[in-house]
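Quick question, first post here. What does this chain look like in 3D?
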Amino acid sequence: MTSARPFDTILRRGRYFDGTGAPAAVRDVGIRDGRIAAVSADPLDATGCPRVIDATNRWILPGMVDIHTHYDVEVLRGPALAESLRHGVTTILIGSCSLSTVHVDAVDAGDLFGRVEAIPRSHVIEHVEAAKDWASATDYVAALERLPLGPNLAAFLGHSDIRTATMGLDRATRTEVRPSPLEQQRMERMLTEALDAGFVGMSAQQLLFDKLDGDLCRSRTLPSTYAKGREMRRLRRILRQRGRVLQAGPDASHPHTILQQALASIGGPTRAPLKTSLLSAADIKAIPFVIHLMRGLSGAVNRLGADFRWQHLPVPFEVYADGIDLVIFEEFGAGAQALHLQEKLARDELMRDPEYRARFRKDYESKYGPRVWHRDFFDAEIVACPDASVVGKSFGQVGVERGGAHPVDAFLDLVLEHGTSIRWRTTISGHRPKVLRKIAQEKGVQMGFSDAGAHLRNMAFYNFGLRLLKHVVDAERAGEPFLTVEQAVHRLTGELAEWYDLDAGRIREGDRADLMIIDPERLDSSLEDYQEAPVETYDGMSRMVNRNDATVAAVFVGGQPVFLDGQPTDVLGRERTGVFLRAGRRNPVASRSGSVVRETTG
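> Answer (accepted):
Ran it through. Tokens below.
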């Protein structure tokens, strides 16, 4: 088979998955001008082609879509976003959980992102202050496209962002304050302009243990949590009319709010359904029965005419912490009281106080009702500590060995002694493989919720898609299949792109050449290894990462190789390979100069 012009790249004889769920087959794939130019059962003509990659015994997949990240700050100075790209994630959604940097100033951004997402507030302020030259959503998109983006980006507009920019952070976080009619109209204009600029929708938040940083409003919940019915109905109406998405975090302490969100998604004779993506379908250790209620709810409302999805992390939700610095402590009074204090001396004084310890023990032992953390220090392993004698043990076990001390006292004693030098881990949810398999089959869930770019010292799910593929392959080999590989690939790529209305997630002829090549034999235990690496843009701060470079042989964005054999290419971070994907539109690809290649067809 010949072509009018040479291909820029040919991928030879790989098992090709197009992202639609169609059966895979061995194919040659030709790339030209940033798009898939040919998919052929016969060898493609390599005459004049500068790059031919042998993909024999490997898989050629569309680049994965990560629907839930917090890269809003990091992208401003580190637009390569290599930690996601190296695992084949080529399209990234930012602006989750009501947080974005479109309208707020740098200090407000620091207060919004710092404590909630565990990104040092000083870095948030510095990054936004240095980069911000935009005053609107349209300008924001233009600013992103001036950066040498590695992956493609798409975005939600954060409700806390527009509420803060409109009302001021103090007024936006007071229970008794409502937006004035003019303020309401301004927020609606901001949302409308963002949708016009191609945003996929708006993110909101009801979760009450996400707290503000800084001094002005420290420890108040996010501005979005203060919105009342009328405000949200008017914003939802715009999303519904435009066919765009509401992403929201429900208040787990008030389960009726979850039901309200699900019911609001239902359409009717005179209105379209509201696309709603809610956090999170999780098999929570603390309340294991709740996952069955979640699955039942999505099925019920979708049968009634909703377009409702749960976001789901298809791997065990294992978290790490340095001392007491972990967001799960925000969900009860004693934990939030400690995290409210910024100075170590003040925290230490509090943790020595017998009355405080009694309150902590009471909260710890209150294990009924909605919650995220299982509150079991016997299920919390110490992985690093200057006192090597406690490494590998749980806090509960240490308490037993220290004369039968209460697990809370054992924990607080060790934190007082070692501060953030004591590092520990626990699994919050996703601990039952059979349940994970059942959730992965549900039509009412979406694969995602990596939180990439946030909680830098607490978790690393950058490669969650590869880990799902491992789970699928392992189950197939064990004779207990729950998804075919084609279905799993579709769930991580084309299904998400279609629902969010993005030009991504498929690699048929004419589609964007955003793809990856993986070695299926290396879908192994290396995917679960713990590693750390510095974040250059955050002064070398160490963060948890994934490193399974032998699994991913190549990653392409817009037809350009950004990772080969687990290593970044010279292009990454220097030239723009990714673009801002505008919802509902066919999007251009970046040229080698960083400009865009204009489309000549539909």
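Residues 593-602 have pLDDT under 50 and may be disordered.
The chain has three domains: 9-62+517-575, 64-318+429-502, 325-425.
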